[in-house]
UniProtKB/TrEMBL annotation:
Keywords: Heme, Iron, Metal-binding, Transport
Protein name, as recorded: Globin
Species lineage: Bacteria, Bacillati, Actinomycetota, Actinomycetes, Micrococcales
Protein family membership: Belongs to the truncated hemoglobin family. Group II subfamily.
Source organism: Ornithinibacter aureus
Record InterPro entries: GlbO/GLB3-like, Globin-like_sf, Globin/Proto, Hemoglobin_trunc
Amino acid sequence: MSLYDEIGGEETFERLVQAFYEGVAADAELRALYPEADLGPAERRLRMFLIQYFGGPSTYSQERGHPRLRMRHAPYPVTLDMRDRWMRHMLAAMDTLDLPEPQAEQMRDYFLRAAHMLVNSDDGIPPTAGHGLPS
Ligand code: HEM
């Protein structure tokens, strides 16, 4: 059984991504990066992608082709600050769902790695800031 099935299939991903985009909508600085006035289409793309990634139907690739996430984020300045905002909203959305472990941990782990991989712009904050390392 896929993680998609284990956590409740499409309905769970609908709730996750809806809660996530409520967070984005309320975060003016992150919201400003999203090009469309209506967040609905972006919500649908993220939902389809996550469903596919976690083992559900592959509608995302049928409609959009290979995900190539890094390339698709190239037009948007993903700074450390934006990555952290994105993560905060996703973790808050996860918390609204009360998902089983270890599936929730597997998802948090994926989001952390993927969000880190998508950073493509420097916002001037030293990468070690706040990590207690000598700068
Ligand atoms: C786990 C990390 C992430 C995943 C899995 C993810 C996934 C996606 C996907 C699937 C799309 C739609 C691509 C397409 O088909 O065109 C997208 C778009 C976008 N993402 Fe991300 N993303 C992540 C992190 C971030 C971060 C950290 C930012 C911070 C700025 C960000 C900002 C955007 C923006 C502005 C778009 C364009 C909205 C749209 O679809 O029209 N993403 N992302």
